[in-house]
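F.,

This is the one I mentioned.
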């Protein structure tokens, strides 16, 4: 049986929006200051990565390539290693931001207020339950979108600065790089905000809502990742048996085509060896194929995936308002 929360009678005069924002800031000031500090530090690290670290690593690779085949000359190996380490850490930090948002939204934004009863105090200050929930969604959503969008832009600038200058720079189809450079983290962070708010209303326990929001957001991202290759029509490239499968980008699948047009798994990837030639002949294979997404599909894939995440976030917000309405008299 679900308990009903009775909203105390309000004064009849709605609280001005600036006063609600001041109340929200005072209540969640430590979390907001921590989030601002994380954004500034990570942003500074990305600026460092895309500027001095990229220049130093590019200069080191230029020295290395000028050594010729022997490679017996001095170059700044520490700069190369430092660039790779900072790139890895900052990339995963950008991808972790949506989970931090979901955990904060579930554990502090709504879960702690429901658990401690602070929400009742807000309702006595001329704020209706619906308006209270709207204030927990609107202003944090603006901050979340702005902070995540800034970090994504800085990461993309850092990756672009290294493109073509650093030999070991990761390509766009490297999945962590693919996500960190596009719109998916912003949409995922907004979905995390909605997940956390709904978890806090459902569970009414800060720690439980925090954990549940992070787990649900992880499952949502895993579902989007699994569906990503199928969100946009792929390109199929057919090559000869001697050349093997070809096509650069996000791979979906590859194999051999038979004379009847059937697709089969490839036992090997070139008929240059007698063993592979015999195996392909047994399958009656006539060519190789590969289904993949080229670089031109980068933004379509991101935009479609982001649209799905935003639609899910909207449904979660709607469910949160319906739940609050049902639980309050």
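My design for it:
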């Amino acid at each position: 049986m679900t308990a009903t929360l009775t909203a105390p009678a309000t004064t009849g005069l709605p609280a001005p929006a600036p006063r609600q924002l001041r109340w929200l800031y005072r209540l969640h000031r430590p979390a907001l200051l921590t989030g601002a500090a994380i954004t500034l530090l990570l942003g500074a690290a990305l600026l460092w990565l895309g500027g001095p670290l990229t220049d130093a690593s590019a200069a080191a690779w230029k020295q290395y390539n000028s050594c010729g085949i022997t490679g017996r000359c001095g170059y700044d190996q520490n700069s190369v290693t430092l660039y790779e380490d900072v790139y890895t850490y900052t990339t995963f930090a950008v991808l972790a931001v949506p989970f931090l948002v979901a955990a904060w939204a579930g554990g502090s934004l709504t879960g702690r207020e429901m658990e401690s009863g602070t929400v009742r105090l807000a309702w006595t200050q001329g704020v209706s339950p619906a308006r209270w929930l709207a204030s927990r969604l609107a202003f944090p959503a603006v901050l979340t979108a702005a902070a995540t969008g800034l970090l994504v832009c800085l990461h993309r600038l850092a990756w672009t600065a290294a493109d073509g200058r650093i030999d070991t720079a990761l390509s766009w189809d490297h999945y962590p790089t693919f996500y960190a450079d596009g719109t998916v983290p912003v949409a995922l962070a907004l979905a995390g905000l909605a997940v956390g708010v709904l978890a806090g209303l459902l569970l009414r326990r800060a720690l439980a809502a925090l954990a549940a929001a992070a787990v649900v957001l992880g499952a949502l991202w895993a579902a989007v990742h699994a569906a990503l290759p199928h969100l946009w029509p792929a390109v199929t490239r057919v090559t000869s048996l001697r050349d093997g499968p070809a096509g650069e980008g996000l791979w979906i699948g590859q194999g051999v085509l038979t004379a009847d047009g059937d697709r089969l798994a490839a036992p090997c990837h070139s008929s240059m060896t007698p063993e592979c030639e015999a195996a392909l002949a047994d399958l009656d294979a006539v060519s190789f194929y590969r289904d993949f997404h080229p670089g031109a599909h980068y933004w379509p894939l991101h935009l479609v995936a982001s649209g799905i995440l935003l639609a899910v976030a909207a449904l979660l917000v709607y469910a949160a308002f319906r739940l609050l309405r049902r639980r309050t008299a």
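The first helix runs from residue 17 to 27.

Talk soon.
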